[in-house]
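User: I'll paste a sequence; please echo it back and then give the predicted structure.

Assistant: Echoing your sequence first, then the prediction.
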Amino acid sequence: MSELPKNALQYRFDGPEDAPVLILGPSLGTTWHMWDRQVPELSRTWRVFRYDLPGHGGAPAHATDSIASYADRLLATLDGLGVQRFGYAGCALGGAIGAELALRNPDRVASLALIAASPRFGTADEFRQRGVIVRTNGLDPVARTSPERWFTPSFVQNQPAITEWAVQMVRTTDPGCYIAACEALASFDIRPELGRIGVPTLVLVGSDDQVTGPAEARTLVAGIPDARLAVVPGASHLAPVEQPAAVTDLLVRHFSTAWPSAGDTSTGFTAIAAPPVKPVIAPMPGGPVAEIAPAAEQGLPVRPDSYDTGLKVRREVLGDAHVDNALAGADAFSEDFQDLVTRYAWGEIWSRPGLDRRSRSCVTLTALVAGGHLDDLAFHTRAALRNGLTPSEIKEVLLQAAVYCGVPAANSAFKVAQAVIREETTPED
């Protein structure tokens, strides 16, 4: 370990000292505390490294006005700590830094997760105008409007403590560093270079993100050769804060399966087996502690109601809009059937630990081809993309199905899946 440079980033570690290092990068206006709810689970397996951007969270106000400079300062900090190879997950600006690292230092990034990210963040004029506002009026106007950019309206209404914490997080940022970060985002554009990102990449986006939403996520997936898309229902820009359990689960699954398969000679670490997923929601500063499952009584596990579990899984896999339409269309004649589907298919089968959701999507697609259920095949193709299957992998499933289910059945299935994949993965202009 060498001495840290004078402009080293403010950082902290959590987790076992001998574990592989997983870096969590923050978004503009946030601190490392935006990841508080992911750390308890991630630090079971990884040595979690979090850092603050300059002038954020009380960090020294050494302004940096390019994404490349942020990446250089992060690498200098890691060099001083003796960290050579790592996994990286970053949100928004933190995601841009991760993409920059994967492009400029591919030998050091083992696996990548880009959250609420984009190859280009809006237009240069938008961010420079925001810099003008901060320079003229301070950070208060940006801080007051941050909840509507970061969270869904229902979250803002139901979580006032976390919402106020977010506002204060922006207010306490150094204005000069915030303006410099806006300049860094204004000049960031890696659209022509996406094909050179050669590490396994998870692209994660909130379904309701109005800042860098599903369209930007699809652009990343379309451009990065080994990228998978995950859309988190009921989340906006700060999905790790708004839907912490879902984001934690997706990160655990990605970094457990997309880490290098051979020993890493630069660290001495070997591949890590997928840990049991027990999502934990830790308290945000000033916020409540939420439970995601009934507490055990007298040391005995309490099984959650299968309907509640099923509805949660059904929404995560199929999306809120589809489930809401299905439930809204139920009447006295069909409501028992919807209850059966939610409890049994989703609460009992899809929630079993024996197969991950990617595998269950493969099985489901094959079964639907065999049965000729093309309407269901359409929304389960969307679900397969949501569960992390790539278009190429879906194609392989359908080719395999052609052998065992028949060419005519597969022919119809290819037409349905092709239309869905085009709709879901074609970047919007």
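Residues 382 and 420 are 7 Å apart (CA to CA). Confidence is low (pLDDT under 50) at residues 261-303.
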